[in-house]
Write the structure tokens for this entry.
Amino acid sequence: MKNFTLINIKGLVQAGENIPDLKKGEEMNQLPIIKDAYLMVVNNVIKAYGKMSEYKPKEEKNREVIDASGKFVFPGFCDSHTHSVFAKTRESEFVDRINGLSYEEIALKGGGILNSAKAMEKISEEELFEKSMQIVEKIKKSGTTALEIKSGYGLTKESELKILRVIKRIKEKSAIKIKATLLAAHAYPNEFKDNHQGYLDIIINEIIPEVSKNNLAQYIDVFCERNYFSVDEMEQVLKAGKKYNLTPKVHVNQFSILGGIQKAIEYNALSVDHLEELDENDLKTLESSNCIATMLPGCSHFLGIPFGAAKKIINNNIGLSLASDFNPGSSPCYHLSTIWSLACIKMKLTPEQAYNALSVNSAYAMGLEKSHGKIKKGSSPGIILSKKMENIAQIPYFFGEDFIDKVFV
Ligand code: NIG
Ligand code: FE
């Protein structure tokens, strides 16, 4: 990024000094766009922006000036929920599902997360890093400039730490902003199938203290679901995490409603994620909290399960974030422009609502509301320059098409 100025921008999106850190209800309909604008970046930081009529070309010595005629400029997408570090893809399960098996049936046969954990045990840390870095590069090119990554394909102390160390290296090396989440409670390893407490004790007494000691994660996640972690089991993990200041961001209500939302909020969860299933009681609890509802339409689309009731979330004044859930089992898609399309087509969000959920609100759902998700002076959120287009609704409209000319980070 460094020093450059974009001029003649057709529309500068989500730019302003007073954009809320979290948008709710009616604010979700508001997406400020400055027409015929410029944006000046000095030493990687946004120095100035505004109408072309206020632009002072004299200040432009020794910097690149890029003509953005006909193009739109956005703050980079924020992806607040991904499992981007994994050892191998799982297309054979994809084919199994085409042939009629469900995600849950595949998992019960020993596939799913346990399948990923087997591969994780075998891969070297170096190879995992190289592979993951390549993926993160592709993620960056797709316009995502802030990315949360979870562990969770390790399921042993050694493997979980290996993943988190790799995430730490990505954080140091990649140009985009990375946040790490510990998800050791993603599934029970086979040897603990009938001894849940045995694995919980390892998470609580060994993994969490070690992760904290080495500063390897800021957030803690649990897959709270039937056949995975019960609400009581999740509570044990969140309680242990709390002692080490790990903030919950949890998987709940993907297939069933167990009361996980209420429990997570009791432990001050920053976000509750998935929510394909949601009842009135859940909505009431969320409404009276500041917890973000994160929805993952890529997972609904790929697994053929219901899409979350995103409109209801907005109408009930609850903070809505959208994320990719990028992972090899249930959502092998990191393109947030595709997620944008799915949110519009399947969840009936307007293009503005969906983009707010992918920028400002998703930044908030990963603790980056001060630095990412919007264009304001003094910040470096990463910048997307689009190809020529008529209006921003064309992005979700031309689903599957690459709308990006360049990403600056
Ligand atoms: O968010 N639901 C749990 N975890 C992941 C999928 C894990 C996998 O199948 O690899 C998810 O969908
Ligand atoms: Fe997930």
About this structure: Residues 83 and 317 are 28 Å apart (CA to CA).
